[in-house]
Design brief:
The structure holds two protein chains of two kinds.
Chain A: H1 3-15, H2 31-36, H3 55-67, H4 74-83, E1 99-102, E2 111-114, E3 118-129, E4 136-141, E5 144-148, E6 155-158, E7 168-179, E8 183-185, H5 190-222, E9 224-225, E10 228-229, H6 234-259, H7 266-292, H8 303-313, H9 320-334, H10 336-345
Parallel strand pairs in A: 1-4
Antiparallel strand pairs in A: 2-3, 3-7, 4-5, 5-8, 6-7, 9-10
Chain B: H1 5-24, H2 34-37, H3 41-49, H4 68-81, H5 86-102, H6 105-116, E1 122-125, E2 141-145, E3 148-156, E4 166-172, E5 183-189, E6 195-201, E7 207-220, E8 224-225, H7 231-243, H8 253-261, H9 268-296, H10 302-326, H11 337-352, H12 359-372
Parallel strand pairs in B: 1-4
Antiparallel strand pairs in B: 2-3, 3-7, 4-5, 5-8, 6-7
Helix pairs in contact in B: 1-4, 4-9, 5-6, 5-7, 7-10, 8-10, 8-11, 9-10, 10-11, 10-12
The chains are: A alpha+beta, B alpha+beta.
Chain lengths: 353, 373
């Protein structure tokens, strides 16, 4: 058994049964246990205050939350820890504290300027995950990361949700000064932060794809109509195969992107993973519901725990559309030989298999 | 057998540089579906001289003793270039490996060095008029005679049979019930008495398909591949080689190449379309790589190969559709450049999801396995 398999089993022990109807007004029950196990600190070196392990380990856990259709601010808090320096700029926080990352969209920048006291923020960032529960909101502003806490005045949170009932809030800054003590130089360029965020969401999507495909194949094996299981119908076989193929591609794509986040071609692998997982999300959700029939669209059935997450997460932190656009630009500027190079430049290592 | 990343990279550059040179010298013009339609025996022999046919087979049998990853490197370079490789493709991909896996030492010595030197060219005798997707329904019979077998029956959809020296033949050697038993794989000499090869012209007006009629064709005893009666088991394993390779995603790469060359990066719709195609190709190619690596590890990833074939052939067709929409040209089979590539692609595309097992049959195989998990 590989380390990843072992980690996946541990995650299953923690997460099985943790799915619930999300109440965005409260922190999920499973979160304290995840923190006790230091999951949000995995992938940050121990000497930097982390829990050690690799980014891959973190992604295995993040994918597991998707697989068990659990909502928790793991990806967000872990990404925040990757951006914070070893000795926290923010006040000491509780081990269970939630941190989140506000990524202003390229089309709607959050205005800021430097003052003697700190960074003066004016504007808003939409769809910030878990902001209402976070005691630190890391706003990524070019090379700065403003760590917004209760020490700063002039910001407020307006609540919003995604389709899965997870908090996606709007954070508004009105002449909000973030003191220099709470401003850090980002160890990652803004593009790299966005790539990390995209891979984290892609790993969640991968997990939710696993869940939807598993439920669908199980259902097709046991549900009988016309005296035979659904899977015996060729039309249903085709749907299962389509869904399983999309999932297999997602497994390849997400780990390829994860392993190459520090590579000069990272943008390409991340974009490919996001296009694939984003397209797969829509197709697999459609197929899963079609195979489940009417019972799958009830609140009582558990399928929507997977599909509402698929529809939510595909729209967050990079979409197939945006990533396809960026990849298209790369390929068209570089020409077909550049595509040939990109296709064959990365020979996956044994760890990815 | 393993190759280091460096060794693979050296091999790739060697293949790519040579193909660039041969294309510049106009030895070949890139075509869609060239692994099935691009027949050039001299070209195959030039590859054979460099040791690129049977590259994974043992050296004592004329091979290169290299990994399946090395073979993937060679084949994907050939496919991306749209090079004429049909003469040796089936032998290298499928029949050589089948003989290596199940053939007697004598059979191996007789045929494998002849394949790697491009002296023997195999075609596939699987489908029959009454056995298409339902391959186990084959009716071609082999009757025992002194010193071997007499094969009688009809095979169909055999690409390049009219130019091949030998056929692989799946035939019935006992009762037809149960139908998966009593099947046997043979090597058959296409110049033997009793063989008739008739052309079938495809809708593009090309002759690559054939019908092969066997009327008591003698096959010597030692040209049986593996155990008589074990044919079904053997042939299903062969399909991992047939389905999991890069030719299931790169058949239309020359058209994609042209589409990229001729698309304006400022055109947002075109840019997104190309970007999404590139993303799918990057992922599918990685899956092909993983299949080759699994084969190097001794596995026969039949399930994953079937899945890849379904998705890969869909991708190949999507390239044709995108090119039809975005290229500022109409398909013209008598034209050159984009017009010709588009014409090739449009007319070849319906075959992609039929040959090597229809998408529908593959779906049955994959779904059965998925539900069993």
């Amino acid at each position: 058994m590989s380390d990843s398999d072992l980690l996946r089993e541990i995650a299953a022990d923690v997460l099985t049964g943790a799915t619930s109807e999300n109440d965005p007004t409260v922190v999920p029950d499973v979160w304290p246990q995840m923190c006790e196990l230091e999951w949000p600190l995995i992938g940050v070196a121990e000497e930097d205050g982390g829990a050690g392990g690799t980014l891959n380990d973190l992604l295995v856990l993040v994918a597991a939350t998707g697989e068990h259709t659990v909502s928790a601010p793991l990806a967000e808090t872990a990404l925040a820890h990757r951006l914070l320096p070893p000795t926290g700029a923010a006040p000491e926080t509780e081990p269970e504290a939630i941190a989140t990352v506000a990524l202003p969209s390229p089309g709607r920048p959050c205005h800021y300027r430097e003052t003697p006291e700190g960074l003066l923020l004016d504007g808003h960032v939409e769809r910030v995950p878990w902001a209402r529960h976070a005691d630190r909101v890391l706003v990524v502003l070019d090379r700065h990361v403003a760590v917004v806490t209760t020490r700063a005045a002039g910001w407020q949170v307006a609540t919003g949700e995604n389709l899965a009932g997870e908090p996606r809030d709007t954070v508004t800054f009105t002449r909000c000064t973030v003191p220099w003590a709470d401003v850090v130089e980002s160890p990652l360029a803004p593009d790299a932060v966005r790539r990390h965020a995209t891979v984290l969401r892609s790993a969640q999507l991968l997990g939710a794809l696993r869940a939807a495909v598993r439920m669908t194949t199980e259902h097709a094996g046991v549900r009988e109509q016309f005296g035979r299981p659904l899977r015996a119908f060729q039309a249903v076989s085709a749907m299962i195969t389509e869904a399983a193929g999309r999932l297999a591609g997602a497994e390849s794509a997400v780990w390829a992107a994860a392993n190459r986040l520090d590579h000069p071609d990272a943008e390409v692998d991340v974009a490919a993973a996001r296009v694939w997982t984003g397209e797969a999300a829509g197709e697999v959700a459609r197929l899963a519901h079609q195979v489940h029939g009417a019972m799958g669209i009830t609140r009582e059935h558990s399928l929507h725990h997977a599909t509402r997450r698929l529809w939510s997460w595909r729209a967050e932190w990079g979409t197939a559309h945006e990533c396809g656009d960026r990849l298209g630009a790369t390929v068209l500027h570089g020409g077909a030989d550049e595509l040939r190079r990109l296709l064959t430049a990365s020979e996956p290592g044994r760890n990815d298999l | 057998m393993t190759d280091t990343p460096h060794e693979l990279s050296v091999l790739r550059h060697e293949v790519r540089a040579l193909l660039d040179q041969w294309r510049a010298q106009e030895w070949f013009v890139p075509r869609c579906d060239a692994w099935l339609r691009g027949y050039d025996l001299d070209f195959s022999r030039a590859l054979a001289e460099r040791g690129w046919i049977g590259i994974t087979w043992p050296t004592r049998l004329g091979g290169g003793a290299r990994s399946n990853l090395a073979r993937l490197v060679v084949t994907e370079e050939l496919l991306m270039a749209g090079a004429p490789v049909a003469a040796h493709w089936i032998s290298d991909r499928q029949i050589g490996p089948a003989i290596l896996r199940y053939g007697s030492p004598r059979l191996q010595e007789e045929f494998l060095p002849a394949i790697t030197s491009a002296q023997v060219m195999f075609c596939l005798g699987m489908s029959e008029p009454e056995a298409g997707s339902d391959l186990a329904a084959v009716r071609t019979r082999a009757e025992r005679v002194a010193g071997g077998w007499h094969v009688t029956g009809t095979k169909i959809w055999t690409s390049q049979a009219h130019r091949s020296t030998h056929a692989y033949v799946l035939a019935r050697t006992g009762a037809a019930d149960p139908k998966h038993e009593n099947l046997t794989e043979f090597v058959l000499d296409l110049s033997a008495p009793g063989v008739t090869v008739r052309p079938i012209i495809d809708m593009a007006g090309e002759h690559h398909f054939n019908e092969m009629i066997f009327d008591g064709v003698f096959v010597p005893e030692h040209w049986t591949i593996g155990e008589p009666g074990n044919g079904w088991h053997q042939v299903t394993e062969q399909l991992a080689f047939e389905r999991g390779g890069p030719e299931r995603l790169l058949s239309t790469f020359p058209l994609l190449h042209t589409l990229i060359d001729r698309t304006d990066p400022q055109d947002r719709h075109a840019r997104r379309t190309v970007g999404r195609l590139a993303a799918r190709l990057l992922v599918l190619r990685r899956m092909a790589w993983e299949i080759a690596a699994a084969m190097d590890a001794g596995a026969a990833p039949v399930h994953k190969a079937a899945m890849l074939k379904g998705m890969g052939t869909t991708f190949e067709r999507e390239v044709v559709e995108a090119a039809g929409e975005l290229l500022d040209t109409e398909p013209d089979p008598t034209g050159a450049g984009a017009a010709r590539l588009l014409a090739d692609g449009v007319l070849a595309a319906p075959g992609f999801s039929i040959r090597g097992g229809t998408t529908e049959i593959l779906a049955t195989i994959v779904a059965r396995e998925e539900v069993r998990r």
